[in-house]
């Protein structure tokens, strides 16, 4: 995850005589796909084996040959698929190719787990937008900074390391312009021994961010994309482009950049998974537009009071029935903090 967009992160395991003879996963940049990687490792042992794949093998000729053809050529006896592909170029055709070749096909095994891992790819394919995780790190009373703006650090080092691992599993890390100005973040993965970095996205209507910030200074080395409004200053647009940033013009929703337009722009660029780290105004706009698929919270054992900066800006909720709701998935202690994972509560 985080390495193969715009393609899905797929896994494949080949088993023969109760022994794993090949493993493969989608390689960086999206190719080779999982199946040919696993088949290459299995070699001649793939003949008569069972291939387990998290997503239906592709059936179309793109930059690589169809994976269904590769499985047929390798003479596997059985293919077990978790979920079917919703891409119109595949959507059942890969399974049909396998069955027509006399291969036994089973589908729906661990489908819910695979669908959760692949949700970003499906959302991009079906709705044109990526999967969005909103991360909030706050005090017990939901504050992300003191009244004077001091915010580093509310949570402990263990929680921050966990966040770096989560950044690594997403295609892009996103913040609002206010957070970029106040915190001067790098938004990179550090301390985990990896060289790959996610795309760094800033949502800033007017691009009014310091040109000597960490993001600006490193834009030529690590991608920085700025989603801006139609009224951004032309000189700033040119300046940010010259220092290496990619610009994503978006429509406005009231006084702010439309969160729907931002996610659609990211989807058009091939992004499948976005990790949003605030601030409060961006978090509120995403929640208000019902775009948050996963809500991740870190709660620290401190209280900052009403004068502190809230983790989420104004939502305009007047009735409880109108409040965004989520379903608790997990909760665990991370260092001195508590991490909870919530998923969108689907209507019954």
From TrEMBL:
<dbReference type="GO" id="GO:0008703">
    <property type="term" value="F:5-amino-6-(5-phosphoribosylamino)uracil reductase activity"/>
</dbReference>
<keyword id="KW-0378">Hydrolase</keyword>
<comment type="pathway">
    <text>Cofactor biosynthesis; riboflavin biosynthesis; 5-amino-6-(D-ribitylamino)uracil from GTP: step 2/4.</text>
</comment>
<keyword id="KW-0862">Zinc</keyword>
<dbReference type="InterPro" id="IPR016192">
    <property type="entry name" value="APOBEC/CMP_deaminase_Zn-bd"/>
</dbReference>
<protein>
    <recommendedName>
        <fullName>Riboflavin biosynthesis protein RibD</fullName>
        <ecNumber>3.5.4.26</ecNumber>
        <ecNumber>1.1.1.193</ecNumber>
    </recommendedName>
</protein>
<feature type="binding site">
    <location>
        <position position="33"/>
    </location>
    <ligand>
        <name>Zn(2+)</name>
    </ligand>
</feature>
<dbReference type="InterPro" id="IPR024072">
    <property type="entry name" value="DHFR-like_dom_sf"/>
</dbReference>
<keyword id="KW-0479">Metal-binding</keyword>
<feature type="binding site">
    <location>
        <position position="151"/>
    </location>
    <ligand>
        <name>substrate</name>
    </ligand>
</feature>
<dbReference type="GO" id="GO:0009231">
    <property type="term" value="P:riboflavin biosynthetic process"/>
</dbReference>
<dbReference type="InterPro" id="IPR002125">
    <property type="entry name" value="CMP_dCMP_dom"/>
</dbReference>
<feature type="binding site">
    <location>
        <position position="183"/>
    </location>
    <ligand>
        <name>substrate</name>
    </ligand>
</feature>
<feature type="binding site">
    <location>
        <position position="67"/>
    </location>
    <ligand>
        <name>Zn(2+)</name>
    </ligand>
</feature>
<feature type="domain" description="CMP/dCMP-type deaminase">
    <location>
        <begin position="1"/>
        <end position="106"/>
    </location>
</feature>
<dbReference type="InterPro" id="IPR050765">
    <property type="entry name" value="Riboflavin_Biosynth_HTPR"/>
</dbReference>
<keyword id="KW-0560">Oxidoreductase</keyword>
<feature type="binding site">
    <location>
        <position position="153"/>
    </location>
    <ligand>
        <name>NADP(+)</name>
    </ligand>
</feature>
<dbReference type="InterPro" id="IPR016193">
    <property type="entry name" value="Cytidine_deaminase-like"/>
</dbReference>
<comment type="function">
    <text>Converts 2,5-diamino-6-(ribosylamino)-4(3h)-pyrimidinone 5'-phosphate into 5-amino-6-(ribosylamino)-2,4(1h,3h)-pyrimidinedione 5'-phosphate.</text>
</comment>
<keyword id="KW-0521">NADP</keyword>
<keyword id="KW-0511">Multifunctional enzyme</keyword>
<comment type="similarity">
    <text>In the C-terminal section; belongs to the HTP reductase family.</text>
</comment>
<dbReference type="GO" id="GO:0008835">
    <property type="term" value="F:diaminohydroxyphosphoribosylaminopyrimidine deaminase activity"/>
</dbReference>
<feature type="binding site">
    <location>
        <begin position="279"/>
        <end position="285"/>
    </location>
    <ligand>
        <name>NADP(+)</name>
    </ligand>
</feature>
<feature type="binding site">
    <location>
        <position position="190"/>
    </location>
    <ligand>
        <name>substrate</name>
    </ligand>
</feature>
<keyword id="KW-0686">Riboflavin biosynthesis</keyword>
<feature type="binding site">
    <location>
        <position position="277"/>
    </location>
    <ligand>
        <name>substrate</name>
    </ligand>
</feature>
<feature type="active site" description="Proton donor">
    <location>
        <position position="35"/>
    </location>
</feature>
<feature type="binding site">
    <location>
        <position position="167"/>
    </location>
    <ligand>
        <name>substrate</name>
    </ligand>
</feature>
<dbReference type="Pfam" id="PF01872">
    <property type="entry name" value="RibD_C"/>
</dbReference>
<dbReference type="InterPro" id="IPR011549">
    <property type="entry name" value="RibD_C"/>
</dbReference>
<dbReference type="GO" id="GO:0008270">
    <property type="term" value="F:zinc ion binding"/>
</dbReference>
<dbReference type="InterPro" id="IPR002734">
    <property type="entry name" value="RibDG_C"/>
</dbReference>
<dbReference type="InterPro" id="IPR004794">
    <property type="entry name" value="Eubact_RibD"/>
</dbReference>
<comment type="similarity">
    <text>In the N-terminal section; belongs to the cytidine and deoxycytidylate deaminase family.</text>
</comment>
<feature type="binding site">
    <location>
        <position position="179"/>
    </location>
    <ligand>
        <name>NADP(+)</name>
    </ligand>
</feature>
<feature type="binding site">
    <location>
        <position position="187"/>
    </location>
    <ligand>
        <name>substrate</name>
    </ligand>
</feature>
<feature type="binding site">
    <location>
        <position position="58"/>
    </location>
    <ligand>
        <name>Zn(2+)</name>
    </ligand>
</feature>
<comment type="pathway">
    <text>Cofactor biosynthesis; riboflavin biosynthesis; 5-amino-6-(D-ribitylamino)uracil from GTP: step 3/4.</text>
</comment>
<dbReference type="GO" id="GO:0050661">
    <property type="term" value="F:NADP binding"/>
</dbReference>
<dbReference type="Pfam" id="PF00383">
    <property type="entry name" value="dCMP_cyt_deam_1"/>
</dbReference>
């Amino acid at each position: 995850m985080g390495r193969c967009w715009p393609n899905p992160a797929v896994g494949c395991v080949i088993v023969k005589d109760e022994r794993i003879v090949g493993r493969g996963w989608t390689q960086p940049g999206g190719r080779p796909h999982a199946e040919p990687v696993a088949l290459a490792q299995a070699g001649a042992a793939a003949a008569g084996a069972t291939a387990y794949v998290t997503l239906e093998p592709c059936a179309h000729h793109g930059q690589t040959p169809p994976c269904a053809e590769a499985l047929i050529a390798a003479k596997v006896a059985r293919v077990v698929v978790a979920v079917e592909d919703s891409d119109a170029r595949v959507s059942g055709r890969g399974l049909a190719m396998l069955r027509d070749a006399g291969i036994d096909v089973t589908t729906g095994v661990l489908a819910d787990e695979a669908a959760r891992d692949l949700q970003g790819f499906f959302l991009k394919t079906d709705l044109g937008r990526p999967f969005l995780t909103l991360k909030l790190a706050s005090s017990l009373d939901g504050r992300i900074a003191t009244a004077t703006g001091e915010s580093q650090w509310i949570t402990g080092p263990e929680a921050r390391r966990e966040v770096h691992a989560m950044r690594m599993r997403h295609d892009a890390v996103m913040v609002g312009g206010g957070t970029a100005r106040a915190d001067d973040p790098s938004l990179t993965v550090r301390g985990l021994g990896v060289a790959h970095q996610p795309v760094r996205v800033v949502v800033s209507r007017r691009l009014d961010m310091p040109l000597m910030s960490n993001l600006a200074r490193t834009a030529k080395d690590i991608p920085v994309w700025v989603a801006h409004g139609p009224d951004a200053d032309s000189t700033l647009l040119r300046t940010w482009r010259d220092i290496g940033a990619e610009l994503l013009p978006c429509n406005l929703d009231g006084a702010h950049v439309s969160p729907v337009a931002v996610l659609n722009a990211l989807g058009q660029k091939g992004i499948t998974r976005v990790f949003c780290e605030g601030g409060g105004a961006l978090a509120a706009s995403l929640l208000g537009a019902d775009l948050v698929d996963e809500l991740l919270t870190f709660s620290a054992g401190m209280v900052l009071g009403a004068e502190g900066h809230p983790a989420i800006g104004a939502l305009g909720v007047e009735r409880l029935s109108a409040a965004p709701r989520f379903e608790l998935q997990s909760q665990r202690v991370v260092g001195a903090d508590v991490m909870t994972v919530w998923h969108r509560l689907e209507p019954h």
